[in-house]
Amino acid sequence: MKWTQRLMLFKRLLINVQLRLVDGSTVSGPILGVQEDFVTIDDRMLNVLDIPFTSIVFIAPVHVTHPTRQVPRKRKSK
Fold first, then answer.
1. What SS3 class is residue 8?
2. Which pLDDT belongs to residue 78?
3. What CATH number is attached to the domain comprising 25?
4. Total domains present in the chain
5. Backbone dihedral angles phi then psi of residue 19, each to the nearest 5 degrees
6. Which of the chain's termini has less CB crowding within 10 Å, N or C?
7. What is the pTM assigned to this prediction?
């Protein structure tokens, strides 16, 4: 699967992604747009970034749990 196909899938599913770049840094956030040569990501730390596909090493989905959707822990029965 090509970078564009994978990123478009994550964008459609509204999944945040984490990108590892060639220089060793990571960027994470929602995908704002996917073009032919680059992807636009909204990283809260670095703002909106245009990242060329040539600088991406891997893409991983980021699973964020919503505070109101956390599963309560089971209490130990005595």
1. helix
2. 61
3. 2.30.30.100
4. 1
5. -110, 130
6. C
7. 0.67
DSSP code, position 55: G
Q: Which amino acid makes up residue 32?
A: L
Residue pLDDT tens, the chain, 78 long? 576 777 777 777 777 889 999 999 999 888 888 888 888 998 888 889 999 989 999 888 887 555 555 555 666 666
Is 70 a member of any domain? Answer: no
Decide if 16 is inside a domain: yes
**In this structure, are strands 26-29 and 47-52 parallel, antiparallel, or unpaired?**
unpaired
In a domain, 71, yes or no: no
Full domain range(s) for residue 9: 3-63
Does residue 77 sit within a domain? Answer: no
Predicted local distance difference test score (pLDDT) of residue 65: 57
Burial class (CB in 10 A: 0-12, 13-18, 19+), 31: buried
Cα–Cα separations (whole angstroms), residue 52 to 28, 41, 71, 72: 15, 11, 38, 41
